[in-house]
Amino acid sequence: MSQSKALAGFHAVTARLRNAADTIQALYYDPTRRDARMQQLLARAQQAGVRPISADAARLQGLVGQTRHQGVVALCAESTRVLSLEEVLDQLEARTLLLLLDGITDPRNLGACLRTAEAAGVSAVVLPRDRSASLSSEALKAASGAVESLPVLPVVNLARAMDQIKQAGVWIAGADHAAPLSVYGLDLPGPLAWALGAEGHGLRRLTRERCDQLASIPLAGQTESLNVSVATGICLFETRRRWAAVAP
Questions:
Q1: CATH topology of 4-77 equal to that of 85-244?
Q2: Residue 191, preceding bond cis, omega within 30 degrees?
Q3: Range with the lowest mean pLDDT among 8-17, 97-106, 228-237?
Q4: Of 48, 74, 79, 94, which residue is the least packed, with the fewest Cβ within 10 Å?
């Protein structure tokens, strides 16, 4: 049997049932939960040909560590189809939007960024294989099923990947709190990639140097910085808003 990945929570498990039920090796649920949400999930599992297995809270928690499971955990095979950066770049269109995450080490922040990226219609998320949180159960829970339809591409060297992205004709904008130019005044041509770094540290030097332009998010209060997933949402949806305002 191939290596299993544990998905916890209703969003993540429902997304896997909807998109790739055949990869679910085992679906465990808490039989003491008899609410409508659980009944809907069990009905979906039955329709997909997946037999739920009852398990107590201790067993469920043991499958996912500290991640909050909401009474449902699915053990799934890793996808055998992995999209490459080259394939993503071969499919570029005028409104292709990419997200580059530099050094996001908190799994909950990573998962929240992925959820935001999927909602914004991002084609792929590129992040360094090292110095980044992995797609752990905690990250997948925070992503709320986004990873099921969003390609996440770990690369050995993010700076080299950015060079490759730029050579393909993608303009790269970087979020930097010290940049004098506001994201709301930034030119946003497509195809476009947004680069964001970890809260408190920001983009690393090599990442920052490869951005075509840097922009900041104006803050009106006393807060010095935003959570990276919030900043990601502002940058991505401002791009979508701007693109929607002009003719395709």
A1: no
A2: yes
A3: 8-17
A4: 94
> Stretch 19-34: mean pLDDT, rounded?
87
Is the sign of the CA dihedral 81, 86, 92, 95 positive or negative? positive
Alpha-carbon span 109 to 64, nearest angstrom: 18
CATH of segment(s) 4-77: 3.30.1330.30
Q: Which fold has domain 85-244?
A: Alpha/beta knot (3.40.1280)
Checking if the pLDDT of 107 tops 70, the result is yes
**Nearest Cα residue to 72 out of 130, 178, 145:** 145
Instruction: Look up tokens 């955990």; give the residue.
Output: 73
Domain ranges of the chain: 4-77, 85-244
Compute φ and ψ for 102, nearest 5 degrees.
-110, 100
DSSP-derived 3-state class of residue 113: helix
Residue at 195: amino acid letter: A
Task: Decide if 145 contacts 15 (C-beta within 8 A).
Answer: yes
The amino acid at residue 203 is L
154 has which bridge partners? Answer: 127
Task: Quote the pLDDT of residue 247.
Answer: 62
SS (H, E, C) 228-246: HHHHHHHHHHHHHHHHHCC
Confidence of residue 204 (pLDDT cuts 50, 70, 90): very high
pTM (2 decimals)? 0.71
Percent of the chain at pLDDT > 70 equals: 95
